[in-house]
Write a structure and sequence with these properties.
Layout lengths: L8 H10 L14 H12 L2 H23 L1 E7 L2 E6 L2 H10 L1 H12 L6 E6 L1
Parallel strand pairs: 2-3
Antiparallel strand pairs: 1-2
Helix pairs in contact: 3-5
């Protein structure tokens, strides 16, 4: 059996800096990505961007191809989904005729606790 050499100061510093200094230098400290990535996204400020991609996909599925061509999610913060609409007539349709149906479908897909309201803006 081979004897393990103690880590050099440089090796220890690198392992500490990377956050992977094991209690036993010969032991693996790997963690699944499903546990690691959410923290990484949060620390880099990318969590919202990931949510944005998810919301964009769900929006296209909920409103269909025609309305998705004329509107898109602009932001999703603190439970408010802001939708940018290209034309006033489409905004009227979304805001006054389809709002309840759209909100119901979005809450079913995103979760009622994540979505409080949907706002439509021209732009």
């Amino acid at each position: 059996m081979r004897e393990r050499r103690p880590l050099t100061l440089r090796q220890r510093a690198l392992l500490e800096w990377r956050g992977s200094l094991p209690s036993d230098p010969g032991r693996e400290t790997a963690r699944p990505l499903s546990q690691t990535l959410p923290g990484v996204f949060r620390s880099l400020g990318l969590e919202e961007r990931v949510d944005g991609e998810e919301v964009s996909q769900i929006w296209r599925e909920v409103v269909g191809p025609f309305l998705a061509q004329h509107s898109s999610p602009a932001s999703f913060r603190r439970g408010t989904l802001r939708i940018r609409v290209l034309q006033p007539a489409v905004r009227h349709t979304l805001e006054h005729l389809l709002r309840l149906e759209i909100e119901e479908k979005l809450r079913a897909r995103l979760g009622a606790d994540r979505l409080q309201q949907v706002r439509f803006t021209l732009g």
